[in-house]
């Protein structure tokens, strides 16, 4: 049986002040993979995610999720933004932040009730943050904040998860906890797409990778394309990273 594509990107081009940030990107991301997007600073990694999600408008190209335009598939998609793009001074508790993840399924009229609160508490427990449910988000450490945002994504019960540098500024314990949850999502048939910067952990954490540097360099299974040749093409210098295992 042929594997379905969770996300399809056709001819996507994004420019800032007439300078291309992404150029003519074609991408087919199969359902049920845990994929890293890697590339140097300024390669357009975050821009790719944001343009897929409609946060940034491309000057050309189209995006579909399970064969339909993203606008019609919003409920299928969850997004964990980069930590630096969030206003952490907003006066709200960890539990409130996670409860926000249930709004999409409720619509505008209904308010979260007992069922949604139960889901939120279960998600906080899953990420090891149940004891901090009433803590103001601004009083949490960077790693704790990241776990809360991951819990918010989990309660959305999406089919596709986009995460922008979820391991940035977290300790080793949090990183292990996060990757274990991402692997659980993949095991449940979800598609998880992660902007990632640590090349050494790519073969250990992911089963699929996209190399990006304004243009798409390569995309596919780790075992086939995570090699010195593609790393050198992407980063412009000789790279030697051996795939373990």
Low-confidence spans: none
Record the strand order, biggest sheet. 6-7-8-3-9-10
How would you classify the quaternary structure?
A: single chain
The whole-angstrom Rg is 18 Å
Query: Per the principal axes of the C-alpha atoms, what is the gross shape?
Result: globular
CA distance, first residue to last residue: 28 Å
Q: How many distinct helices?
A: 9
* Fraction of residues in H or I helices: 25-40%
What characterizes the major β-sheet?
Answer: 6 strands, mixed
Instruction: Write down the secondary-structure element order.
Output: EEEHEEEHHHHEHEHEEHH
Number of strands: 10
- How does the helix and strand content classify structurally? alpha/beta
Give the strand content: 25-35%
Mean model confidence by pLDDT: 89
Description:
With 245 residues, the protein is α/β, with parallel strands linked by helices. Helices cover 31% and strands 26% of the residues. It has helices spanning 45-52, 94-99, 103-106, 114-126, 142-155, 172-187, 202-205, 222-225, 228-235; strands spanning 5-16, 19-30, 34-38, 60-65, 68-69, 77-80, 160-164, 191-195, 208-213, 215-221. A six-stranded mixed β-sheet has the order 6-7-8-3-9-10, with helices on both faces. The chain has a four-stranded antiparallel β-sheet with strand order 2-1-4-5, with helices on one face. Helix 6 links the parallel strand 7 (160-164) and strand 8. The chain is globular, with a radius of gyration of 18 Å. The mean pLDDT is 89.
Set out the fold topology.
Elements: E1 5-16, E2 19-30, E3 34-38, H1 45-52, E4 60-65, E5 68-69, E6 77-80, H2 94-99, H3 103-106, H4 114-126, H5 142-155, E7 160-164, H6 172-187, E8 191-195, H7 202-205, E9 208-213, E10 215-221, H8 222-225, H9 228-235
Parallel strand pairs: 3-8, 3-9, 6-7, 7-8
Antiparallel strand pairs: 1-2, 1-4, 4-5, 9-10
Helix pairs in contact: 4-5
């Amino acid at each position: 049986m042929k594997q379905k594509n969770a996300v399809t990107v056709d001819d996507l081009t994004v420019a800032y002040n007439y300078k291309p940030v992404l150029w003519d990107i074609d991408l087919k991301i199969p359902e049920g993979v845990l994929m890293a997007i890697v590339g140097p600073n300024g390669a357009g990694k975050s821009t790719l995610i944001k343009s897929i999600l409609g946060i940034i408008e491309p000057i050309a190209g189209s995006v579909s999720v399970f064969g339909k335009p993203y606008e019609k598939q919003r409920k299928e998609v969850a997004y964990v933004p980069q930590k630096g793009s969030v206003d952490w001074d907003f006066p709200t508790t960890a539990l409130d932040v996670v409860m926000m993840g249930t709004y999409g399924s409720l619509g505008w009229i209904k308010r979260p009730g007992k069922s949604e609160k139960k889901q939120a508490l279960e998600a906080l427990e899953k990420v090891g943050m149940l004891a901090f449910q009433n803590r103001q988000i601004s009083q949490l450490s960077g790693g704790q904040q990241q776990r809360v945002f991951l819990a918010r994504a989990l309660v959305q019960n999406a089919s596709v998860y986009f995460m922008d540098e979820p391991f940035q500024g977290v300790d080793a314990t949090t990183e292990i906890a996060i990757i274990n949850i991402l692997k659980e999502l993949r095991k449940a048939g979800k598609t998880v797409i992660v902007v990632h910067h640590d090349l050494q952990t790519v073969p250990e954490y992911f089963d699929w990778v996209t190399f990006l540097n304004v243009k798409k360099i390569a995309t596919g299974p780790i075992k086939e394309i995570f090699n010195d040749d593609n790393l050198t093409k992407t980063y412009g210098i000789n790279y030697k990273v051996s795939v373990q295992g």
